[in-house]
């Protein structure tokens, strides 16, 4: 294992970066694609929300099946399958001619994709124990880097040649990720006895006995929902702020990247602060900053002010997920920790599913600035709940009892 884990890490980082880039290059501009290429003019916000949500719904339903196959046959085969299917999905996006075909391809993507989770699982299981934390930290920078570069590249491509072509570019990126994994990733012989899975019902019962863990999962769900309530609406809001149709994708790409730049700058610093003052305080500050940032966004009615405030919002909100991950690790027993992070992923997926639906349908009933205000109030409410005895992370709590015996 010592002889190839570093090479695997490099190749998997490149693959995760390319797959994340493919998403960032194309998917944030879905509303422009629906409007300009597929002719959707009525209820654009609702269509965009549904288009975003169906993939997460399909993915959440099929994930246990792919997980069982990964336990049986290994992570690399599942990663290769996901990479090839995701590449095909992006090429099909390039070919669709109406929104109903687009929905079908989005469902297909959700059912068959999963490259990055498979890559992370491969890193976690095939890296020497003393290097696992370092390796997973390196892997997390792939998506952060892509979130900065992808929207800018996608905005430029969409601006100059059209939103449809961004999907073709995304398909090529994922195909390259598939090929380098096929050629250069090495996975040791897989011991199927290590892949035995516990009962989901039993895991949920064990998790429910840990109040700290359940509080953290609740906040993961709320924050993921918060992000996805707004993401499908940002490009539409850019148009409402006065951007021309020709420049909307470019301006939206810059604004999307502003949050990514802020995250890359602030997240490591919040991590160091958390080790000194406690992750509970860092989480509270991040939620307060994110809530106020959303509320203030309703006051800005020009692109420069809106983009600048999104950057400041990102500086604070960057504290939330690292603090939650550290908190989950701190308050769960090592024998249950991997299952705790699996539940964390489930809570995140539920937020990713519901967020676009809520945001899309709220925007059809209310103005987008009001949706920002509701979102900000929700984050502030969660921050205040942290200070209540029932939810307080500062209350005494023991990790889960050993569950691996």
Write up what this structure looks like:
There is one protein chain. By secondary structure, this protein is mainly α. The chain is built from 16 helices and no strands. Helix 10 (211-240) packs antiparallel against helix 14. It starts with a helix and ends in a 20-residue tail after the last helix.
Q: What shape does the CA trace take?
A: globular
Helix fraction bin = over 70%
What can be said about the biggest beta sheet? Answer: none
Order of helices and strands: HHHHHHHHHHHHHHHH
Percent range for β-strand residues: under 5%
Low-confidence segments, given as residue ranges, are: 395-405
- Nearest-angstrom radius of gyration? 21 Å
Mean pLDDT: 79
Count of extended strands: 0
What gap, in angstroms, lies between the N and C termini? 27 Å
**Strand-pairing-aware structural class:** mainly alpha
* Number of helical elements: 16
List keywords for this structure.
single chain; 405 residues; mainly alpha; 79% helix; 0% strand; disordered C terminus
Record the SSE blueprint.
Elements: H1 5-26, H2 30-37, H3 44-73, H4 75-95, H5 99-112, H6 115-126, H7 132-161, H8 163-184, H9 200-208, H10 211-240, H11 248-277, H12 279-296, H13 303-317, H14 320-330, H15 337-365, H16 368-385
Helix pairs in contact: 1-6, 1-7, 1-8, 2-3, 3-4, 3-5, 3-10, 3-15, 4-5, 4-6, 4-8, 6-7, 7-8, 7-11, 10-11, 10-14, 10-15, 10-16, 11-12, 11-13, 12-13, 12-14, 12-16
